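ok so I'm stuck.
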Amino acid sequence: MKRVFVGRGEELAVLEGARERARAGQPQRVLVEGPEGIGKTALVRRSLAGVPHVLYAEGEDAGTWPAFGVLEQLIGPGRWTDPGSAGAALVEALQTTLRKGGGVGEDAVTVVVDDAQWAGSASLRALGFAVRRLRAVRVLVVVVTRDIADPRIPEGLGRLFTADAAVRIRLEGLEPAALRALGDTLGPVRLTVRAAGRLYEHTGGNPLYARALLEQEGPGLVEALERTDITPPAPKSCVELALARLASCTAQAEALVAAASALGRSCTLAEAALLADLADPLPALEQAVRTGLLTERQGDPVVRFPHPIVQAAVYHGLGPARRRALHRRAASLTDDEETALHHRACAATGPAPQLAAELAAHGRRSAAGERWEKAARQLSTAARLAPDRAAYEQYTLEAVECRLLAGDVPDRAELTARIGEFAESGWRSYLLGRLSPADPDRAEVLLRDAWRRCDPDADRGDRVLAARIAGRFAALYESVARGTEAANWARLALRLAPEATATDTVRYLALAGMATSGGAARALGELGPLPDPAVASPAQLQELMGRGTLRVFTGDLTGALRDLTGVLAATHERKPVQASAAPTTPARMPPGDGRTYSASFRITAAGALAAAEYLAGHWDDALTHCELALSLADDSGRPHSAPYCRMLAALTHAARGSFAEAHAQVRGMREDIGPGGAGPFVWTALAEAHLARTLGRPEDVVTALAPLLPPSEQDTSGSFDEPGAVPWPDLLADAWTELGDQRRAAQLLGQYEALAVRRDHPAALMRAARSRGTLAAARGDPAAAESAFRSALRHAHRAQEPFGRALVHLAYGQFLRRVAKRTPAAEQLRTARGLLVRLDARPDLERCERELAACGLDTPARGTDVAPGKAAVAPLTAQELVVARRVAAGLTNRQVARELVISPKTVEFHLGRIYAKLGVASRTRLAVLLAAGNEAGLPGRN
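replied:
not stuck anymore, here's the structure
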């Protein structure tokens, strides 16, 4: 068999670290655990490839095995009478090998005992005897077993290899990306992203099972895995084992297990007994549990297969005729329409026009109720049973839309290529446009083609499609900062078919478009009363999110935070659907109405809240919610969905002087966004400009922002100069002032001031007046500068933006010092300093302290009055502390991600920040820092 190794980079790094420590004279104990076939042996052999001085032994599952058989594999035969003398012989052999190898720094001697559960008690006790006597020697001992708690492994050895000083690696399944690499390496199977995800769900990522299926099924495996309405195949060896176990059962137990396999990976005992026609299923269940085919828990009515592969093995071992009979009987026994349709579809052997139509109708009802995953499954099944190509394509297009809304499209390129082969139609163009958000120009062309092909007045079907197209236009134009068009298309979608827009942000888009096109105050006045987010309907939740955004644009940050915090909390109550393998039978609905919020909705909610928090000076919270949005975008395969959040994160990092993080966010924006579109360009320009301002580079501010100016004074098509948006006209005016281009600064400020007055936006009026004061001072007009700065202070009393207020006091203080008014200058600068300390805005804080020093005034020593919760180094956030504890406990990034319900990339992001903040470079150092008695001293811990 061809040797193949993929993935396991993190585990290999852990083993390499242990070997390096052993080479330095620190003896190491490493435990590698995991179920059969998970790749333990392959991992250890890969890590030791080319390494000298390796003593390797493995246990054997045999009836007869010499007492010290494993020890003899390590050091040769001997006449040992007890584990002590055998262990002493192993120590002596290791010392001899070390003496031949040289001193500290030479390669360590590595001892590997594989399949330790079969190594025999005598050999394992001898190994424990030897390990306890290793002191300051270059020895690495690796024990490989399925479970260290196995009763065949002596307790003493178990304690040695689970102690704090030992390195413990718990191997889990390969990630979907590694399974794709496995398919590529083995050939000729090229797994799609979706198929790899389902293979992971089906096999648990077990390399043994995955490889067997790839080699057994070939390219046909991809098609089987893409279909969520069927049970994927099982390896032939597993089928044979399942059939052998079934053959050993009574007829009643065999019937119970067969019935359960037709009902899915789990079902109630009553359901399986009814399908198997058993009056008393308990004796049959007892035998099924004894043979390892089913599991049960006392008090739990549900019986389960121990692994998805076991269910698949039993199910496919039944044969097609018996499977069909079981599904037909199951359909006749249930009163639930959805379950009956599922079993009828499983029993179908070819095209079934009536059944396909029923499934499609049910799927459309599920979609109308925003139950996207269920709708996608039903429509996909309808497509499989469709009587002709046209029906197949229509059902498939509708299923794709539902998958998009469920966040279950891991590879848009694959899906785009597939749909591109369909016949031209309004639905095809609409879906292709929906699949192209990273290329707004292409998306607009496709959506216009879709609009041309449908007639909203013709019939209900075209009206629904028209509403969907209008909803996508609204989302597209909002993403490129064309607020008026976004609002108009959103309102049109709601007029056409408010219940069928397939955009669960359409009501929000209507309000957000008003906000970015100057109608925020009017829209707020027209919006009626809304309930608390916790009890709001999905439509009301959209309007609450829209109201929060409107409040941001009118300067009511307190109200905005209240609305947007509630909206995001409500979306957590009903989590978004995650892509996963569908059960053989329909999933039982959780309590509630079964609605889910799309990834787009949650990204939008997190981004809107982060924007309000950034302006309100809640910067830690803003970063947390930016990270959430970016994680959601990454998990749903939509990195282009959150450039706005990357911009907010860049602004916050820049203001705090975390320039490496700010630059990283700007790079990420450039990598994530595709060609075309004003919106992504605007967000990147704003991020670069704010970063350049903080770095004191006015020429770079001009380079970034000048392209945002309209080509003429009459051009008002842009909406990113709205006073409630992320501020930038004052930045550009300040940069021009600093560079000596006072004419252009004055012209821009005049336009900005006029707009701020029309909107009556306190923070915009404050920023414009501050910038006007700076310009007047540069022109040598102290009276005008004094008047402008005092105006800025008056507006600052109404503004809810602490960073903007701090910059007003700082600029005014700088001006007063330069006109020799040191006492009032010091008053302004102290006020600015207090605000900047609370924000931890280090670059502007340093400027402020230089001004105070120039006034001849002392400032508190740096670090003695830092922001609450801050320390000499940046504190760990609550999320970072949670991640740090789990990493220090030995969990891998993937295990941490699974436990905290975040993505592995988010864990990597947190870990990078943790290392930087704590000044450590490894998991080992982090574990030492978090050891008992040390955690209380962590920055931000209290």
